[in-house]
Amino acid sequence: MRAVVQRVDGASVVVTDESGTSTVGEIPGEGLCVLVGVTHEDTPEKAAQLARKLWTMRILEGEKSCSEVNAPLLVISQFTLYGDARKGRRPTWNAAAPGPVAEPLVDEVVTRLRELGATVGTGRFGASMRVSMTNQGPFTVLLDI
């Protein structure tokens, strides 16, 4: 699994579909916005490991973790994290797991975070989303689990 983790001062996800435009996930104030990519070899155990890392990683103000200050997380699936643009002008997505494999694993990250006590907002899997955030720092970390 791959995650781009950004320390934020507020973040939200908006989806427009046949029923209109709506905010599907939002965190107010300090927390983490996490973009999660899944590849073919990923497992529920890796999802649990990522959740534990996100909950306890000390990257908030004052070197605190989400678990220490009860900061919320916004978790958004993003298959493009496994895009490969080294050759040609068009990225390939061969390393990204297909939706039926990826969606349950992203859901597992969210479930495990909630089991740890986290408040978690989410995007909508497979939807065209507009993600807004204020990156605090800026502070961004790339995790490969």
Main features:
single chain, 145 residues, alpha/beta, D-tyrosyl-trna(Tyr) Deacylase, Chain: A, five-stranded mixed beta sheet, 3 helices, 5 strands
Task: Provide a compact summary of the structure.
The chain has 145 residues and is of the alpha/beta class. Helices cover 23% and strands 40% of the residues.
Write a structural description.
There is one protein chain. It is globular, with a radius of gyration of 15 Å. Helix 1 crosses helix 3. It starts with a strand and ends with a strand. It has helices at 44-56, 66-69, 99-115; strands spanning 2-17, 20-37, 73-77, 120-122, 129-144. The protein is an alpha/beta fold and 145 residues long.
How does the major sheet shape up?
Answer: 5 strands, mixed
The CATH topology comes to D-tyrosyl-trna(Tyr) Deacylase, Chain: A
Strand order of the largest sheet: 4-3-2-1-5
The poorly predicted ranges are none
CATH superfamily: D-tyrosyl-tRNA(Tyr) deacylase
How many domains in all? 1
Oligomerization status of the protein chains:
single chain
Tell me the radius of gyration: 15 Å
Number of strands: 5
What is the overall pLDDT average?
Answer: 95
Question: Can you tell me the overall shape?
Answer: globular
What is the architecture at the second tier of CATH? 3-Layer(bba) Sandwich
Alpha-carbon distance between the termini?
5 Å
Strand content: 35-45%
